[in-house]
Structure to design on (371 residues):
C-alpha cells in the first residue's frame, strides 16, 4: 500500500534479525500480514532493493538489510552493483 | 554558572570503526589524528560534558516513531550496531545538565523527544568513542539525535533555533560544568544509493569555508534538493553542524582537517568553532 509499510518490514528485519529467517522460509506467508501492493511484495520477495528504492524506500534501510540477507561479503560492491542495475563493474574510483 | 567553552564539527562515519585500515591509509591516519586533537583540546579546556549532536540512521527510530530532535537524559550505552566492531560499553550522561536543557526547551516552545534509556547508534557513538573517549577522559556526554537522515527532516532553521536554545540553556544552568558541543556528520556522501563512494570535494570545501567564515546563514539557505543532488543524501547532516553553530554562537572556525575518503564513502571535515569574533 505504501513505502511506509515496506520500510516497517525492513526496519523490523534490522530490529529483530530472527525475522529474516522466517521471511526467507516462506516469503508469501511472512508478507501476508502486511498491506502491500503486488509490486512491493514482488520486490521484497525477490530482494529487489533497487526497485524498492525507486519506489521511495529509504536507502538507509536497503543498505542495512542487504548484508543481513545476502551476507556481509557482498558489501559494498555487490550491493552497489545491484543498486546500479548491474552496471557497476569496479569499485568507485578514489 | 555552567559555560559553553568549545565547539567542534566532525564526522561520525561508522567505517572509521569497522574499517580503520584502508588503501589510502594516510587519509585515514590524518582523520584519526584530527579526532585525537579534538580530544586533546577538550581535555586541555577542562571540559566536563560534551553535547554530541548526531542523527539517527533508521536504527534507533523506525517508521512508527520519528522524532525531529531527541535528547538523552538518563542511561546510555553503545554502540548499537555489532558490525562496528566496537564492544558495547556504558556511556555516562550528564543527567542533571541534560534534564535542565530538556526543561529549558519545554518552557520555551521546544518539544523535545526524550530518551531516558538508550543504546546509542553510530550517529553519536562514533564521535563519543573517538573524540570524547569517556573511558579515558571521564568526560560525560549529552547525546542529541536529529532528523537529518530520515524524512520528515528537521528544518535547518529549526536546527539553528534548537542550537541557540541549547546554548542559552547551558549559560543559564546553575552548575559549574565546562561544556563543549559537537556537530557531527557529513560532509558529502551518498548513503545506500548507487553513487555510494562518491565524494564531492568542491562542495565539502565550500561548506568548510562557510563554517570557517561563520556564515551559518549560507548553510541554512541550502535546500535539501540542492544538497541531495550536489552532495548526496548524507550531506543533509549539515543541519547537525548548524545546530552546533547555533549552540556555540559560532563566529567562525579553525579548520583542523579535511580529507576526501571514498573508501569511507565520505568527505571528512573536522573544525573547531570560534566562540568569539
Amino acid at each position: 500500500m505504501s513505502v511506509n509499510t515496506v520500510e516497517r518490514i525492513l526496519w523490523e528485519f534490522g530490529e529483530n534479525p530472527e525475522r529474516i529467517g522466517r521471511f526467507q522460509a516462506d516469503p508469501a506467508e511472512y508478507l501476508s500480514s502486511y498491506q502491500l501492493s503486488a509490486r512491493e511484495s514482488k520486490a521484497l520477495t525477490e530482494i529487489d532493493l533497487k526497485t524498492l528504492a525507486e519506489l521511495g524506500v529509504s536507502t538507509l534501510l536497503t543498505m542495512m538489510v542487504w548484508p543481513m540477507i545476502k551476507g556481509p561479503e557482498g558489501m559494498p560492491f555487490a550491493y552497489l552493483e545491484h543498486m546500479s542495475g548491474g552496471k557497476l563493474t569496479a569499485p568507485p574510483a578514489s | 554558572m555552567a559555560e559553553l567553552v568549545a565547539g567542534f564539527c566532525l564526522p561520525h562515519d561508522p567505517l572509521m570503526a569497522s574499517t580503520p585500515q584502508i588503501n589510502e591509509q594516510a587519509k585515514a591516519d590524518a582523520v584519526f589524528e584530527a579526532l585525537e586533537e579534538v580530544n586533546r583540546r577538550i581535555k586541555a579546556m577542562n571540559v566536563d560534558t560534551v553535547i554530541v549532536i548526531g542523527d539517527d540512521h533508521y536504527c534507533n527510530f523506525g517508521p512508527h516513531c520519528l522524532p525531529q530532535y531527541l535528547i538523552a537524559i538518563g542511561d546510555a550505552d553503545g554502540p548499537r550496531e555489532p558490525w562496528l566492531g566496537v564492544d558495547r560499553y556504558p556511556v555516562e550522561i550528564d543527567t542533571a545538565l541534560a534534564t535542565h536543557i530538556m526543561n529549558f526547551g519545554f518552557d520555551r516552545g521546544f518539544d523535545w523527544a526524550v530518551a531516558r534509556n538508550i543504546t546509542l547508534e553510530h550517529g553519536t557513538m562514533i564521535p563519543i568513542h573517538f573524540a570524547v573517549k569517556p573511558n579515558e577522559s571521564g568526560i560525560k556526554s549529552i547525546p542529541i539525535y536529529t532528523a537529518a537522515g530520515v524524512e520528515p527532516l528537521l528544518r535547518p532553521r529549526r536546527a539553528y533555533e534548537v542550537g541557540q536554545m541549547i546554548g542559552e540553556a547551558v549559560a543559564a544552568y546553575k552548575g559549574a560544568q565546562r561544556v563543549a558541543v559537537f556537530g557531527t556528520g557529513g560532509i558529502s556522501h551518498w548513503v545506500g544509493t548507487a553513487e555510494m563512494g562518491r565524494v564531492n570535494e568542491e562542495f565539502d570545501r565550500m561548506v568548510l569555508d562557510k563554517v570557517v567564515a561563520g556564515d551559518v546563514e549560507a548553510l541554512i539557505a541550502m535546500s535539501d534538493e540542492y544538497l541531495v543532488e550536489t552532495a548526496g543524501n548524507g550531506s543533509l547532516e549539515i543541519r547537525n553542524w548548524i545546530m552546533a553553530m547555533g549552540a556555540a554562537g559560532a563566529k567562525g572556525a579553525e579548520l583542523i582537517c579535511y580529507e576526501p575518503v571514498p573508501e569511507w564513502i565520505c568527505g571528512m571535515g573536522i573544525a573547531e568553532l570560534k566562540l568569539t569574533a
Observations:
- The CA atoms of residues 187 and 267 of chain B lie 5 Å apart.
- Chain B touches chain A at residues 23-24, 57-59, 62-64, 83, 149-151, 191-194, 196-198, 233, 262-263, 265 (CB under 8 Å).
- Strands of chain B lie at 3-10, 49-55, 69-78, 89-91, 113-119, 140-146, 178-184, 252-261, 266-274.
- Chain B has ten helices and nine strands.
